[in-house]
Amino acid sequence: xxxxxxxxxxxxxxxLRRYKAMYDSIEAFKNKMDxxxxxxxxxxxxxxxxxxxxxxxxxDYIWIDLEHSPTNxxxxxxH
Length: 79
Hints:
Elements (H helix, E strand, L loop, with lengths): L10 H24 L8 E2 L4 H8 L6 E2 L8 H4 L3
């Protein structure tokens, strides 16, 4: 398990906290799968990132479809 130290001010602190939150979410997902629990998540085929934001709080994962939708890599980064 990684240990994060929030040192410094401004942008660096923001990115450290954001990365830690993302890491914690991934760890929670892996722990749920390891425990044999059901993980539920939607497939997003919209290029608008607001759809992903609206679903994020209720999903264990979000599958962003890049093959069967107009979403490209550049717009996927915004999700």
